[in-house]
Task: structure prediction
Amino acid sequence: MEQINEDKDRILYKVILIGDSFVGKTSLIIRFCNDTFELNGIATVGIDTKTKFIKRKDKKIELQIWDTAGQERFRALSKNCTNQMDGIILVYDMSNIASFKSIKMWYNNLKETVDFKKVGIILVGNKCDIENPQVDHKSAQEFCFQHGLSLLESSAKSNTNVSEIFSSIIDIMLKLNDKTNLKRVNSKLEQISQVKEEQLKKKNKKNCC
Ligand code: GTP
Result:
């Protein structure tokens, strides 16, 4: 993914990472933004944001990445932010089955605040570097199939599939944008043809004796 400087005609996308505490949300963001990894990360308090400028498919993108705290006491706070987002990255820890079971809860919570037709969502199984994972690929794929999501297995530690997570969510958001723009163009074209029809009717009335 190419990085760019600030620009006026860039598209701003807001993306949030959600999931249980300790699944590696902050680590994925730090790996993506700074290309570093710390084995003893500090739990996020509340919400943190980072911005990265990216060029993807000839589009200049300002990616605002929101990092949420997975701890229960901060859940209401992260829930309140989801309605402002263009993209949501749901994260579980492949070495922790409980964090995968929680994904259902996180996903159901989103239903209250998010219009799924307008917001891109992907599922990420992090810590794929750990041997003998507790969450098998098939179960995660089944969940994705049920809900029409894409699945990526990543590791912030070994830098596996980290940039792919952000490329995927950007591609989904760009596609959704295209659809919205197409709808806008179509409704404008409809309005124009309605106006033309009315003008033609008026003209015909005038010409009529
Ligand atoms: P909260 O802020 O509490 O919600 O946690 P978080 O989801 O942001 O997790 P964080 O990034 O702080 O990572 C938690 C722990 O998992 C840290 O000790 C990280 O070093 C470790 N970790 C993160 N990603 C990976 C990974 O891909 N592989 C391995 N082995 N450990 C990881």
Notes: Residues 21-27, 38-41, 43-44, 69-71, 126-127, 129-130, 155-157 surround guanosine-5'-triphosphate (CB under 6 Å). Residues 2-184 form a domain with the Rossmann fold fold (CATH 3.40.50.300). The beta strands are 2-3, 11-18, 47-56, 59-68, 87-93, 120-126, 150-153. The chain is about 45% helix and 25% strand.
